[in-house]
Each structure stands twice: as structure tokens, then as C-alpha cells.
Fold this sequence. Notes:
The complex is a heterodimer.
Chain A: H1 6-12, E1 17-22, H2 30-40, E2 46-49, H3 61-70, E3 75-80, H4 86-98, E4 103-107, H5 128-141, E5 157-162, H6 169-182, E6 186-191, H7 195-207, H8 210-213, E7 215-220, H9 226-235, H10 243-273, E8 280-283, H11 292-298
Parallel strand pairs in A: 1-2, 1-8, 2-3, 3-4, 4-5, 5-6, 6-7, 7-8
Helix pairs in contact in A: 10-11
Chain B: H1 4-7, E1 11-15, H2 18-24, E2 30-36, H3 39-42, H4 48-64, E3 70-76, H5 86-91, E4 97-100, H6 104-113, E5 119-121, E6 123-133, E7 136-141, H7 157-160, E8 177-178, E9 181-185, H8 187-197
Parallel strand pairs in B: 2-3, 2-4, 4-5
Antiparallel strand pairs in B: 1-6, 6-7, 8-9
Amino acid sequence: MKSGSHLEKILTGGQFAVTGELGPPKGADVAIIERKAKLLKGNVDAINVTDNQTAIVRMSSIAVSALLKQMGLEPTMQMVCRDRNRIAMQSDIFGAYALGIRNILCLSGDHQKFGNHPTAKNVFDLDSIQLIQTVKKMRDEHKVLSGDEIEGPPQMFIGAAANPFADPFEFRVIRLAKKAAAGVDFIQTQCIYDMDKFERFMQMVRDRGLQEKIFILAGVTPLKSVGMARYMKEKVAGMEVPDEIINRMKSAGKEKAREEGLKICVEQIQRLKNIPGVHGIHLMAIEWEEVVHEIVERAGLLPRPIM
Amino acid sequence: MRYASLEVGMIIADGKPIQEILAMIASYQKIVLAGCKGCVTVCSAGGEKEVGILASALRLARQAEGNPIEIKEISLERQCDTEYLEPLRRDIDGYQAVLSIACGAGVQFVAEKFRKHPILPGVNTTFIGVTEEQGVWTERCQSCGNCLLDQTGGICPIARCSKSLLNGPCGGSKTGKCEIDSQVDCGWQLIYDRLKELGQLDKLEKVMPVKDWSKSRDGGPRKRVREDLKI
């Protein structure tokens, strides 16, 4: 065991993992976190805590992760390279570990242009792949980047993201291989709607044997409405939504949009379960945690294993 | 005759909004407006021609306010070299301030050499770049002090990736464009295409190590000394 985290036990134990996501509040209100946590509890193996996603100021991922830990849930702390340099990031990794956090997701981070402080200075001292290397060095060599010895290494289970739908498509598997070479343990993908393209991506992954080296969790997000589907297609960078999905949501109409969205999501999970090299799903019900239980149940993934 | 513009690196600048300049010079009645025949001439921001245009605009605006201003127009060979600042020395005493439309280096160098006068910036210095086409300039270099263009097909990820990623492209690259703006090329897509053309895609398989930013401005103000050239 590298970290002994619950997620690591699930994955190394050969179980099909289910991870969820929790967006911290735009403020200091702990009740919001408690409400979302309650909806996720028992339905997922670990919960990603986003780090000021889309560059909007929210409660820090380290604090929310620590709060989840206190509530008896397992957090995966997301960490982006946009806001902190190597000094602050390594310091926060020590702190996170000391607070009981055992999973970390290393990300570049959305550009600040998208957020509520577009005039901010960005950092990007490291990139996501270099952050993976850094956490691995801290964990396995017991050293910080400079080479100085660590007093108590943070034994983190190291994650990163992959977006099979960004361009250039042929490069996406090379980038994943780089993350594997840098020392990542698990990968969570961008939301998948174009299943055929994802299958092609997974074939390239298997051609390189990457699924033997790292755990891959396929990202899914239930659609609330045809408007959301269109928004994802047109406005969200690196996202592909096939017309077939948009048409299904459109045909369902307002009344049945919820049911159709959940149905599509459950169908996707069923198909993902059968793709060789997919070790689990990452269910991102964005500001819609209420449906997580139903989706996981209908997908036949309950009860979650107790390790 | 010297062709200064052909001898210098290309620093791009952009004229400040006239209202901002008017506010800067509001308390003066006599100023020198100093252009530079270097980079800012090439990018049509601070050369002799721009000196003339800006001086006329400022005079008209001040006249309209009923608060006329006298502007001495001058264009120096370069503002970043002591010898070329001499013409300014001849004129400066009769004026209250100097409005320089050279780059930030020029403005500061003039300020260092003429200690009794306020030296004001008339342009925003924006980047080191190229003339992509007539009237279009784009950024190419961030002067990070540690060139890695040999590894990236001659295209700089520091300057041309919005996140300065060394192992890009990130998940926001779509149809060759950057997530920040559909008009901005993804620097890493350019690198990918170039390395593909060169048959060097294998270079992208290697993880680029953490960068030493101490050679960049992060290490503090930089200085270059050539002992053999010193007098």
C-alpha cells in the first residue's frame, strides 16, 4: 500500500470504484458541505473536493477535505497549479496529510480568465505532470523538490485527470503515458458523453498497456436538461456531446428531462463497466448531489464495499 | 544614416488612452514629448510619426479645456543608450516634464539620466514579439533566461501557452485553439504540429522537468556583463 487510503484499497482490491465530487461553498458556510456530504455518504468510495474550480473563489479544498474527514468520509483533495508555487504546494501537501487526507488529484487548473477574478496574476510554477512528480518524490524518496529530507513523508495516493476529448486526439494517450511515467496512481477522466470516441481512446490506452500501470476512472455527469447538454457542448472547453444525446434530452421535454438524464447516465455506466481497463467511475453530479444515490443504485453499484 | 530599428530586438508597445495621458500631464503647461526610433517605431507606437500625432491631439484637447499646453517634439535615436539621450539634454531645462513614448526601459533610463524632471510614460509596453502582418504584432518571448526552443520545435510554451505549461497541451485545447479565447492559438497544438512535421514527436514523450525560474525575473532584476567590452 502506498497510502492505505480507502480508494487505494478499493482499486488494488479489484473492486469497481465509484468516486463523487463536492464543490466547496463560495463562503465559510459549513452547513452546505454537510448537506452535500450527507447525499454522497454511502454512495461513493471517495469524494473529490475541487480547488477553486473555474477560478471562482471558494472555501479551500484542503479545509473542505479535512471537514469531510471529520464527518467520516474519504476526501480526494484536488490541487491546481494556477494559484500556488512549489513552496506553497508542498507545504499544503504536508498539512493535508497531517489532517488525514490521503488522496490528492494533481491538476493544471482552469485559467483565471473564467473566474470571478480575471485580473489576477497566475502562477503555474509547476504543471500538473511536474506536480505528480513532486508528490511522488515526497512520498517515495522522502524529499522535497530541492532534495531536502522530509520529516514525516506524506503517503499520498496520487491522482490526475485525463481529457480524451481535448485536442490533438492522438496526443491524449501520450499525455496519459507521461502522467503514468511521472508516477500517477489513478486517473479520473473528463465527463464522457461520446462513448465511441472514449472506446477508441481506451483502445490506445490498452495498446500501450497503461491500464496495467494505473487505475482509470471514467468521468460521468448526469444531464439536467437539454440546455445543460447544449451548454456543455458549446461552452465548456474540451467537452464533446454527440447530437444523439442532445436529441434524446430534447425529445424528453421538460417533464421527463430528469428521468432521461439519469437514464443516459446509468446506460453510460453500464457500458463503461464493460470496457477493459476501466477500473471505476467518477460521478460528477454538479450541484445535483441529490441524484447520486439513485444513479449508483440503478447502475447496480450499491452497496459500496467496506474495506 | 543609422537604421536603429533594424538593429534592436522587437519590444512591442501600445499607446496609452489619451484621457490617461491628459490626467498625467494635467498640472503642466510645458512638456517635452520624446519618441524613440527603436522598437516602438517599428510597431508604430512611439516613433517620430506618433510623436506628431500625439502632440497635436494633446494640444487640441488642452486648448478645448481652455488650458493650452506647449509641447516640444523630439525623437531620439534610442532612449536606452546614454549617447542618444544628449539631444534631450539640450532642450529639457525650459520644460516641466518629459512624456516619453519609448518602452518602459527607455522611460526609466531617461528618468535615471534627468533627475530633476518627472518622466511620464505615454505607452504601455506589452511584449517581445514579431510583426505577424502589416499592423499585427504577436508575442513570442518572455525572456525567461533559459531558452528551451530546441526541445519544442522552435515554439515557446512559456510565451505561447496561456498557462506556460511545459508538458502541455492541457485539457482545454480544442481544434487548435486555447480555452481562454477561440481566437488564441493553443501553443502546444502548434508545438505538436511542428514536431510532427519535423518527425520529432518522440520529444513529447519525455517529461519536461521542473523549470529553474531563477533565470527569469523571479530571480530578481537581471544584469548582463561582458568584461571584455568594458572600457
